[in-house]
Design a protein that fits this description.
- With about 375 residues, the protein is α+β, with helices and mostly antiparallel strands.
- It contains 10 helices and 12 strands.
- The longest helix has about 40 residues.
């Protein structure tokens, strides 16, 4: 007798098929780029879910801001005004230092420092995996974001873009265990490599010599040697230096300057997209153009100098009247034989001004 309802495969078979399918999808996603378009299209749908999940927090912030007390608003206003005055003073000083730096670079025949272009982005999500430090921002490929683009907040560098989607991007933070950045000590220029430890509030400097000049409180800035992060941005502050006489390297721990767990608004840095070879070639061409421009007016400035040199002995010839005629004749003969055609009229004019007879006599004696 046939059953009324046909039985499907058992739960164990279904689970096995789903497990195999999941493993196959993970392998294909990790090894190939076939699923990248599907992921990009799925991000469009997930973006709406991010917006919906973030809606309660934004509503709460709006309600809290509407019902804030007047005294808190007045105190916050005064604090912001004070900070604004301080920042304006620093900005004026920074503008003067920037202009001075540009003038010094021009004096050294170096290319002027061009400020990087930045764009504000907002954090809209975080990776739920506790062993990876990644965040999602609301700027993607349609906004001009590129792979490897540096990301920073108001205090320092945060990380770099590692995955692009049409309207969103994934950022790998500095503290991730797979991330490293070349840094240097701002005090003495000592170079090192800062690696992530998996702790959002700790970085570690690898392979620092035990005798290296580094101490607690030193500021670590990006060195720009990796051609990925621009130079000069703060990265971390040295918190602990442990020296062990039995080990060749010291243990150096640092705290990131950026608020990795608290920053909501970030900056995307659009640096120079040229390769190091292209920048070097452009700098060499600019220096050659400067040299050619500087060398053009030098030629007319040096031309009158040879013509003015023979005019000096010619001017002293009329003043030598009391001396013997032989010396004056010899000087005149030397000037006549060695002077250029352009110098002859200059020698003849000063000789003819005092008296016309002595030159005639000297010419007859020479004949």
């Amino acid at each position: 007798m046939k059953p009324l309802f046909a039985k499907g495969p058992s739960l164990g078979v279904r689970l096995l098929v789903l497990v195999v399918l999941s493993v196959a999808l993970m392998v294909v996603d990790a090894r190939f780029t076939v699923l990248k378009p599907i992921r990009s299209q799925a991000s469009l749908v997930l973006m709406q879910s991010y917006w919906i999940t973030d809606l309660p927090q934004r509503l709460w912030q709006g309600v809290a801001s509407q019902f804030g007390s007047r005294t808190e608003l007045v105190a916050e206003n005064e604090k912001l005004q004070t900070e604004n005055l301080l920042l304006q003073g620093r900005l004026q000083k920074l503008a003067a230092l920037t202009e001075q730096n540009v003038r010094l670079r021009e004096l050294l025949n170096s290319s002027a420092l061009v400020n990087e272009k930045v764009e504000v982005a907002e954090l809209i999500g975080m990776d739920p995996n506790p062993f990876t430090h990644r965040i999602i921002i609301n700027k993607g490929e349609r906004d001009g974001v590129v792979l490897g683009q540096p990301v920073l907040d108001a205090r320092g560098l945060m990380g770099q873009v590692v995955e692009l989607m049409p309207y969103t991007s994934r950022v790998l933070l500095l503290t991730d265990t797979t991330h490293s950045i070349p840094v240097q000590v701002n005090r003495n220029g000592l170079r090192a490599i800062a690696s992530g430890t998996g702790n959002p509030e700790r970085l570690e400097l690898r392979h620092v010599a035990d005798t290296a000049d580094i101490k607690e409180g030193d500021l670590l800035v990006s060195s720009g040697l990796g051609q990925r992060f621009p130079a000069g941005y703060p990265v971390a502050t040295v918190k602990e230096v442990i020296h062990d006489s039995g080990q060749p390297f010291a243990i150096v721990r640092a705290v990131p300057t950026a608020a990795l767990n608290r920053s909501r608004y970030l900056l995307l840095v659009f640096s120079d997209s040229r390769t190091p070879e292209e920048r070097a070639n452009d700098a060499a061409q600019a220096q050659e153009a400067d040299k050619q421009g500087e060398g053009a007016p030098v030629v007319p400035a040096t031309v009158p100098k040879p013509a003015a040199a023979p005019a000096a002995p010619a001017a002293t010839a009329p003043a030598a009247k009391p001396t013997a005629h032989g010396t004056t004749n010899a000087a005149a003969a030397h000037g006549a034989t060695n002077s250029t055609p352009a110098a002859r009229p200059t020698n003849a004019k000063p000789a003819a001004k005092p008296a016309s007879k002595p030159p005639a006599a000297t010419q007859r004696q020479e004949e």
